[in-house]
Write a structure and sequence with these properties.
Length: about 60
């Protein structure tokens, strides 16, 4: 498996979503911390479950 290096904002999103999924936490509080909507939090949870840490890398990186 390849080592994944996240930038600061990507790492912050990853940490919050990981903690949310692991502890079955409150999505509304996570949305407030991330300054985004509940829908975005749900999308990030799906991305985390499907791709893991790799899913938080911005898709335009390296272009």
């Amino acid at each position: 498996m390849r080592k994944v290096d996240l930038r600061m904002n990507e790492q912050a999103k990853y940490d919050i979503i990981k903690k949310l999924v692991d502890t079955n936490g409150n999505k509304k509080n996570a949305a407030i911390k991330l300054n985004c909507s509940m829908r975005t939090v749900n999308r990030l949870i799906i991305k985390y479950k499907e791709e893991g840490k790799q899913g938080f890398i911005h898709k335009n990186r390296g272009r």
